[in-house]
Amino acid sequence: MPKKKSPTLFEDSLAELEALVNQLEQGDISLEESLKSFERGVFLTRTCQQALQEAEQKVQILLEKNGTPSLEPFTDE
After folding, report:
1. Contacting residues for 37 by C-beta, under 8 A, at least 6 apart
2. Torsion of CA 31, 32, 34, 37, to 10 degrees
3. DSSP conformational letter for 7
4. Taken in order 69, 70, 76, 77, is the CA torsion positive or negative?
5. What single string gives the DSSP state of each residue in 8-75?
6. C-beta neighbour count of 14 within 10 angstroms
7. Nearest residue to 41 (alpha-carbon basis) of 7, 15, 73
8. What is the pLDDT of residues 9-39, one digit of tens each?
9. Is the pLDDT of residue 4 over 60?
């Protein structure tokens, strides 16, 4: 049975990515640490992109009616 992803995986990854960017922008870390942070950032970016793609697919599936896409106007209620 596949392991379910944590519901906060996207939010946690995004927060960690933002912290890494801030750390890299300050420039107070060594080149080696910067490279490790950059590598982690690439991994987190891919994780976030995958989560967004999965969410988009779910939305598309939910919007389909009778096997064909059905777009409805957005109303802000």
Report:
1. 20, 23, 24, 29
2. 180
3. T
4. negative
5. THHHHHHHHHHHHHHHHHHT-S-HHHHHHHHHHHHHHHHHHHHHHHHHHHHHHHHHEETTEE------
6. 16
7. 15
8. 899 999 999 999 999 999 999 999 999 999 9
9. no
CB 13 within 8 A of CB 41: no
Q: Helices 31-63 and 9-26 sit at what angle, rounded to 10 degrees?
A: 150
- The burial of 52, by beta-carbon neighbours within 10 Å (0-12 exposed, 13-18 middle, 19 or more buried), is given as exposed
pTM: 0.70
SS3 5: coil
Residue at token pair 């420039």:
27
Q: Name the phi and psi angles at 6, rounded to 5.
A: -65, 140
CB 41 within 8 A of CB 21: yes
